Amino acid sequence: MNSSTFVSESITQTPPIVWTIAGSDSGGGAGIQADLLTMQNLSCHGCSVITTLTAQNSISVSLVETVSESMLLAQFSSLLVDLPPVAIKIGLLVSQAQVDILADCLAQMRATQKMVPFVVLDPVMVASSGANFNSIDLDFSSLIGLIDLITPNQHELKHLCSQYALAQDCADVGNKVAQQQQMICDAKLLSDIFQCHVLAKGGDAQWQQQLAIDVYVSKSVKGASLAHSHAVFMLSSQRIATTNHHGSGCTLSSAIACFIAHNFVIHDAIVLAKAYVNKGLTLGVSLGQGPGVLARTGWPDDLGMMPSIKLVSSEHLVDDSCEQAPLNGFKVLHQSLGIYPVLDDLRILKNVLQAGCKTAQYRAKLAANTDERQRLTLEANIIEAINLGREYHAQLFINDHWQLAIKHGAFGVHLGQEDMVTADLTAIAATGMALGLSSHSYFEALLAHQCSPSYIALGHIFATTTKQMPSAPQGLSKLKRYASLFARHYPTVAIGGIDLSNLELIADTGVGDAAVVRAVATAEEPAKAYRALHHKWLQLTRPLAKACSPQEGV
């Protein structure tokens, strides 16, 4: 199966159910219609609870008619009995009664349902044509504690903050930095008020000029790195010069709900939805006399459409540590990683190098209360590992200990996400070393990509006992999607629970290479285990090797 076929398929066998609770756009560009198009395009089954009927086209809204309270409740109840959702997107609500009815329904759902859906609120207030949907200000406070993410644009962000707190407009409207800091303050304020994640959109922020910058405020995120929970990020993309943007906010929020339904963490769902909207805007179509509509372009597989990610400090300053790669760059790998053993035993490392292994990693950990004797032992072991790599002409990577790797001239260093932030990447690049970076999600792989490493590790694919992981096993479907996005740009290596029994499944995903830990480290004969893995990988991934005999392949 080729990657273009794969990206149109659902990541699960049965399409997950996603609800949209929103208004009907008779012009088809936004609202329920845009949501259902997006859900279908992203392999979800969309269900709708219609709040409002609008008579509109691309130019204007001529009539807004609210559905009855009994009809709103009946739609919700009917779906819940037979088609319970994994995720819900809430869009246009036009009366306080609708807000309160939904709050009661969501509260009851949380109390009675085994599976609690992820809820996205897009607080729609004004149409793309400029029409105001609400004659009164709605109080969304009854939804506090019942929604997981709120996605206001700049107008909505300001309105909500002024409604619930003593927010003030930025005094220096001509100062881009001041405007940016105000946007961050407002997004954090809204997150605190609603006790949820916030994605404050910057598409309508004129001060941003050539960039479209969103502010993402995250709360606790199960399955993500601790460094990325309770954090603030700026997500930036080049502003796309188009008038075909009708329904972009609806599309973004419903796309986030879809990616959540496919079991991606919210960090991933947001960057994927951003890429989906960016490509939709790029290929948008003009149909009427007013703003056109977004294209529906399938699962994102274009790295150029992904946003850049910057961590914002507590002082609202941007951390540019991985905004771009160091000027010197990292060593380019001139041979594939192949079967890539990750080992903490020097004896086994020597055995696999003698068996012909040309890429390996020495991973030795130190406890927090390590004494000087243990540090000296570690340094001696790293020196020996580096020397073994040179002796056998292998690409030998040192895990974590980048200062010692620099000091003793290692071929390369491998860093995790937390170490990537604290390590001196410029110093590593200045030595001409190679750099490998770990990732456990789209979001983390994008952070790695911004550093332009020598390779990106994707994991953990299967359950592993070699180390505690905050993330769940990624599985083969996710690995295939990661590979389709990154493998054209970097050497990619899968890691986590890989052995001879599942190696063919790993090869079928299109990932470049495979790292192994227990499959070699705990084998009775590590060198023999390595050779078996190496030969099978060659048979699976190198066409010429398939024609070789077993002896020739090894």
TrEMBL record:
Residues 345-520 form the Thiamine phosphate synthase/TenI domain. Pathway: Cofactor biosynthesis; thiamine diphosphate biosynthesis. Its EC number is 2.7.1.49. Residues 25-292 form the Pyridoxamine kinase/Phosphomethylpyrimidine kinase domain. Its cofactor is Mg(2+). GO terms for biological process: thiamine biosynthetic process; thiamine diphosphate biosynthetic process. It is an enzyme of class 2 (transferase). The keyword Plastid does not apply. The keyword Transferase applies. One of its GO terms (cellular component) is cytosol. Keywords: Magnesium, Metal-binding, Multifunctional enzyme, Thiamine biosynthesis, Transferase. GO terms for molecular function: hydroxymethylpyrimidine kinase activity; metal ion binding; phosphomethylpyrimidine kinase activity. PANTHER family: HYDROXYMETHYLPYRIMIDINE_PHOSPHOMETHYLPYRIMIDINE KINASE THI20-RELATED, PHOSPHOMETHYLPYRIMIDINE KINASE. This is hydroxymethylpyrimidine kinase. It comes from Shewanella frigidimarina. The lineage of its organism: Bacteria, Pseudomonadati, Pseudomonadota, Gammaproteobacteria, Alteromonadales.
